[in-house]
Specification:
single chain, 10 helices, 2 strands, elongated
């Protein structure tokens, strides 16, 4: 549940911010009549993503043995790659999101209301398909599919509430801490996906020898069974008896990616004075202004 909650909270907030920015800009420029196509575009994108996720889940559930191992390994590796790209992309581009969306809305509004709806559809669909991919990976690594669904729904509810608050209150939202904390947690989640992919491919290709022997073995206690075990397994890819190659893959991903993420999050030394004087707030914030023009 924890992994799915984090995923949908993060992805859902990105969707909510996109919609909030678009609606606030339309309100500010006196084009409230375009609220309807934005709402329709976003809703249709969400529905398409849900249907796609259900269809894929049902299709994967019909496989067993080596086909299942191949699918789950590929799914986990793909999700880890997309998740890693998304984390770094958002850290780099969050502050320019408003200006980019404003430009797309102006261009679309000059053509038709349907074009505005398509902009909302594309923005929501991109985040939605990423969310579906991550949730499918979270379910394959968790003890309960129901827990994944519940956690995902809770994350979406919290994200929706935050999105409404952003739109109604306007002003500035400091995203740096949110994306830094959730980015770090998602890197741990992605490392677990990499470890899971190696585990599945190891079974698929029937690896043998020292590399597939357990590095440790925990047979009882909260780290071997119960809700703590389920949470750690779904959130961070924890295993009570992980193969050595799985642990090596986990660490091989976690150390360089974690270092690159936090090293890039630190501002250059020659900008410290400017950041301290207040420029930092402007660079790390996303402007959502729904005041009258």
């Amino acid at each position: 549940m924890g992994a799915s909650f984090l995923i949908t909270l993060r992805e859902g907030l990105e969707i909510a911010l996109v919609i909030a920015i678009v609606l606030a800009y339309l309100a500010k420029t006196g084009r409230r009549e375009l609220f309807t196509p934005v709402a329709i575009g976003g809703a249709v994108a969400g529905l398409v993503c849900v249907i796609a996720g259900i269809v894929f889940h049902l299709a994967v559930g019909k496989f067993d043995g080596k086909p299942e191992q191949a699918i789950e390994g590929t799914l986990a590796l793909t999700a880890a790659a997309v998740l890693t790209w998304m984390i770094f992309w958002m850290r780099k581009n969050a502050r320019g999101m408003s200006a980019e969306l404003h430009g797309k809305i102006d261009a679309a509004a000059s053509r038709s209301a349907m074009s505005v709806g398509l902009v909302a559809f594309a923005a929501v669909a991109r985040e939605g398909f990423e969310t579906v991919l991550f949730l499918l990976s979270a379910e394959s690594g968790s003890a309960s599919g129901a827990a994944v669904v519940i956690g995902g729904l809770l994350g979406l509810v919290v994200a929706a509430v935050l999105g409404v608050a952003v739109y109604r209150n306007g002003s500035r939202l400091d995203l740096r801490k949110f994306f830094l904390i959730t980015g770090a947690l998602l890197i741990l989640f992605a490392a677990g996906l990499v470890g899971k992919a190696v585990h599945e491919f190891g079974e698929l290709f029937e690896f043998g020898g020292w590399m597939i022997e357990p590095l440790w073995l925990i047979e009882s206690g909260p780290l071997a069974t119960g809700w703590v075990f389920d949470f750690l397994k779904g959130m961070f890819g924890w295993s009570a008896d992980p193969e050595r190659i799985r642990v090596i893959a986990y660490v091989a991903y976690l150390i360089p990616i974690g270092y690159a993420f936090f090293a890039g999050a630190r501002p250059p030394a020659d900008r410290n004075q400017a950041l301290q004087s207040g420029e930092q707030s402007g660079e790390q914030s996303l402007l959502v202004d729904n005041s009258a023009p």
